[in-house]
Amino acid sequence: MEKVLVFGMTSGYGGVESFIMNYYRHIDRTQLQFDFLVYNREPAYADEIRKLGGRIFVIPGRKKNPFACKKNIMRILSQTPYCAVWSNLCYMSDIIALQCAKRIGVPRRIIHAHNSVNMSGKINGWLHNRNRTRIFRIATDFWACSKAAGEYFYPVSILESDRFQVIPNAIEVDRYAFNKEIRVQKRQEMGLQGQLVVGNVGRLHFQKNQKFLLDIFAQLHKRRPNSTLLIAGEGELRPELEQKIEELQLKDSVRLLGNRSDIAELMQAMDVFVLPSLFEGLGIVLIEAQAAGLPCFASADVIPVEAKVSFLLHFISLKEKPAVWADNILHASVSGRVETATEEVKQKGYDIRQMASRLQKEFLI
Questions:
Q1: Which of 54, 61, 130, 231 has the greatest CB tally within 10 Å of its CB?
Q2: Residues 176, 264: contact at Cβ < 8 Å?
Q3: Sign of the alpha-carbon dihedral angle for 292, 294, 298, 302
């Protein structure tokens, strides 16, 4: 059995964590096993990782103690003959795991891009640009969740080489397929009968632009008072969102649900999905929402075109006023859910059962 050391998980239940776990659940773990390297605290899904046979190595973070960080990574790599180190990053400021892997002699050193712009300030931006010019000497394989993410991470020479490829953010498509019984049950459980339910899933972070989402919903709520906004996710923006909800007098109509393990079921309860992000590597929740048959609205010229895997996804410019978004959302909500959307998603290559087999072959080359 071959082993891969995976870097990039955090304690948050975000898109990268969801992506990694989707693949981890569906590989043949009798042939390939993942271990997880994380900084400072245990990752999301820690209990599930252990049940699936993975080990978790929690070490001091690079910023907290760079010497201890490097020493621990070297120790971990020297104790197990990993076939690959797979580093999943939203920006290329931290490539220490790949550097240590090269020094130890790990044969495959994979960097995987999950974002298309800098989201963490000037220092990380400077480090990203610096590492971008030398990563070709450290990594052996260059992956990305979309072409846009690849362009942000890698120079043209890499993008045009056979060492670059896009790995789809595949999902359990059938798990999200529209189910009327679950919809009725979830809406009753949450007291949403008779409501137009607008949904959003993502970390409460400026990237996800939930403040603008509240402005959109305020306009929508004026037109449809019997409407509710569900936001699933947690993050540092929560206090500001709570304050804005109060200011807009929407406390009874907006629910901040926190981190949830029932996203597939929540999407059954929704009528429309909105993701007005300022930037995205792909936007895996849009794939999930389309699989669920939801009309989806997302930021034009921001969300990569790869995210449009069905006719259900509509793009609107962030330059448009919230009222324009609200009018488009209300118009689309009239048509209701689409029960056959899962087949379109599968045909576009986002079925995890197919893609996990492809990924496994990549590691076992």
A1: 231
A2: yes
A3: positive
Coil, helix or strand for 105? Answer: coil
Taking every pair of Cα atoms in the chain, the longest distance, rounded to a whole number of angstroms, is 62
What single DSSP character describes residue 30?
T
User: Is 155 within 8 Å of 133 (Cβ atoms)?
Assistant: yes
Q: Alpha-carbon distance 115 to 92, whole Å?
A: 10
Instruction: Tell which wins on pLDDT, 127 or 326.
Output: 326
Burial 45-83 (b: 16+ CB within 10 A, else e): bbeebeeeebeebebbebeeeeeebbebbbebbeeeebb
pTM for the complete prediction?
0.83
> For residue range 117-173, what is the model confidence (pLDDT) as tens digits?
766 667 777 888 898 889 999 999 999 999 989 999 999 999 999 999 999 889 999
The mean of the pLDDT values for the chain is 93
Query: Pairing mode, if any, of strands 313-316 and 296-299?
Result: parallel
Token readout for 128 is 């990203």
Q: Any residues with CB less than 8 A from the CB of 109 and at least 6 apart, and which?
A: 84, 85, 87, 98, 101, 102, 138, 139, 140, 141
- Convert the pLDDT of each residue in 197-223 to its tens digit: 999 999 898 989 999 999 999 999 999
